[in-house]
Amino acid sequence: MLEGKAKVGDGEEPSMEFNFVESMNSSFPYIKEGEAFDVDKEGVWLEELFAKKWNLQVGDYVRLEYEGILFTEQIRGIIIHPEYVFYSLDSDSMMPNYGTYGYAYLSSKEYPIQDELYYNYMVIKQTNAGESSEESMEFKELVKDTLNRQNIVVLDRKQNGGIEAIASEQSQHEEMGIMFSAVFLLIAVMGIVTTMTRMTSNQRIQIGTLKALGFGKRKITWHYMSYGIVISSLGSIGGGIGDLYLPLLFLPSMSAYYVLPNWVTQMSVKTYYAIVLAILVSTLVSFLACRKELKDMPAITLKPAAPKNIRHSMLEKSRMWLSLNFSTQWNVRDVLRNKARSLMGIAGVAGCTMLLLCAFGCSDCVKEIAVWQYGELVTGQYKVIFGQQVTNLEKRQYKQQYKGQLVQEGSCEFRTDSLVKKGGITILDEGNYLHFQNADGEEIILPQQGISMSVKMAQVLGIKQGDFIEWHIVGEKEWQRSRITALYRTPTGQGITLSREEYESLQYDFNPTSFYTNMTIPQYVKDSDDISGVISIEQLKIDLDKNMEMMNLMVGILIVAAVLLGIIVLYNMGVLSFLEKTREVATLKVLGFSSGRIRRILRQQNNWITIIGIVAGLILGYQFLDIMMQTMSEDNDMPTVVYLASYLYSIIGTWITSTGVNYMLSGKVKTICMVDALKGVE
């Protein structure tokens, strides 16, 4: 596996990773076009997205370069490979830019200078592979002993960057799926509770009539339970169908991030479990909601429900009660008499606010990443990556010429008593283009002695500042044991950072892989063999903005869900509340209260519930968003950030939804039939 370039387009030289293969027995490319890969055939098999970017077809010839050696190959096939499910040219990039770099597979016989061919990579197929870290470590040591090479690096499949990335993404989506499923199931439960309670309360006389006609309690109960069963079944089937089509909205963004042979949607076993659970819960809730009206005798059920006999509360007995105006007293008494209904209304408002805050907060977190990574932690405008053949003297000359900061980056492994993890290692020379912050977001200067570790990696390993950690650089034999002298937080590239002084004190040679600078890099320097690539921080910001497309779609879905939740729950609760207060409202009208004043009284209670629900929703929303951010992959550390504007949008959105529903319901005051409402309860 070698780093080189391809000469394409109008003299452009994108980076390319060449895989010269001697044999292929366990890791195979997926053929998209052309011939199957064969180690006995001439030619090159190019990665699909790279070929599309530069308009290369099967049968075309492409010029390749490795360490100044040019050679031309015919394209035999267009491929993708499972080891490159996700790959990026630079660890600082949070969004891949496929096509601007790529990879290729060739037979080892195609290496330009056969006498200088050497292999630096071997794929081993392990039978009866163990899943635990201990078994993995034992196998790695077995390979080293078998090959009698202790300085080699043995990585398992889980440590492959692409496979690890998509496995973490899958795990994150599963956790988020459980969280949102629980939220929306709760929404469904509240909707069914309010709907069934309103229906049975409205049909109280009909239920009494059915009882009087001889219908059994079980049959009437089944009649109302069947409503929940039918509605939940239709809704679940509709949700299952939507499960096949809704993900299509996310495929363009996901396919820009991961490279898979096919992108198809299908229903998993968990979807069927969710459907069954939704139906069972809905049926149970329907039964619990309607049994209140079914427990009384027919003679009682045939009459309108008697007002609740509630004792006066401590507030009503206090002197402060007399200082309250009538509308406040009326609403306080109504809330205390109907605690369950009021709590349900608060829960509906809180859920609406929570989802809105999560929606806007997700967008804020992604925006904050760009500001944090490319505005606070990295202040250089360009990252220049050296070619493999550049000497350290030439690297120092580049640093002086462009007033840059030299950086060495690589991979290392960390070992505790029960865990082995792969991460990154960064060695810093003098300069001020890279900055660090602690867990509280305060800028810190890393100590010159000891090693500094990212907060996320420390959490994964279960260690803290001041502890010792064993680590070794990938490719090195000896393990080091160092004290963690500082913890810093970074959104990507979890691992350790050392000063050049500390690194060289461990008997390592400082060999920079890149440098950061604010000076513009001329085109002739970019085209030279000394430079493998030049990354613009501004371009990385643009790439990150592309990732916002999927986030904006998620935000839209959450906003729609929040509004629907608010409308459904608040409308059902409002109608139920109005039905229960019909007799009281009619009494107020008889006493001379105008419809406008009665509507203001009703809106006052709604305003109380809305305010309490919004406050609870803001607290729950932030906690829910923080849990979502914690489900990110081990390689990413996203801060939980909610801008003031997002709080305001969530409050305004919830308030508009709540007051809109309340305004619509309060208009029913004019429709009350005074004769029916004021019939006495015998």
Descriptive tags:
682 residues, six-stranded mixed barrel
Characterise this structure.
- The protein has 682 residues and is an alpha+beta fold.
- Helix content is 50%, strand content 16%.
- The protein has helices spanning 48-53, 133-147, 161-202, 204-212, 217-245, 251-255, 269-294, 298-301, 314-317, 320-323, 326-337, 339-377, 392-402, 455-461, 500-505, 523-527, 537-546, 548-580, 582-590, 595-630, 644-666, 674-677; strands spanning 2-7, 15-21, 30-34, 44-47, 61-66, 69-80, 101-107, 382-386, 405-415, 420-428, 436-437, 443-444, 451-454, 468-473, 480-488, 495-499, 514-517, 531-536.
- Strands 1-2-7-4-6-5 form a 6-stranded mixed β-barrel.
- Helix 3 (161-202) packs parallel to helix 18 (548-580), helix 12 (339-377) packs across helix 20 (595-630) and helix 12 runs antiparallel to helix 21.
- The longest helix is centred in the N-terminal third of the chain and has 42 residues, at 161-202.
- The model has no long low-confidence stretch (mean pLDDT 80).
